[in-house]
Amino acid sequence: MGKNKxxxxxxxxxxxxxxxxxxxxxxxxxxxxxxxxxxxCIDKHRAGKIAVIIKNFVGNTDDLKNxxxxxKTNCGVGGSTKNGEIxxxxxxxxxxxxxxxxxxxxxxxxxx
Length: 112
Description:
The chain is of the alpha+beta class. The protein has a single domain (25-110), classed as Translation Initiation Factor Eif1 (2-Layer Sandwich). Helices cover 23% and strands 28% of the residues. A 5-stranded mixed beta sheet has the order 3-4-2-1-5, covered by helices on one side. Strand 3 (79-82) and strand 4 (85-89) form a beta hairpin. It is globular and about 55 Å long. It starts with 36 loop residues before the first strand and ends with a strand. The relative contact order is 0.20.
């Protein structure tokens, strides 16, 4: 029962003693870095700005946010993590790919 009640999805009542609550995706087990297959894309359409998007991360939200923080800090730029993607501001794809390689991630460059 040691799971955090705040992560529960919605409100649900059950008389089933074996009932398990459904938790948000922060409970998904994160694959090790060398088993990840990330896609590194450039997006030129976000309010006229260039952004780098990292897709296909398999894992929980906290680990996704930690990777996003590592990338943003090392590149010295802003960005966000949402919908299972990391969005990094600016045209820093080459630097991001260097960081991913250093961290042991498998990645694929996608698009121009």
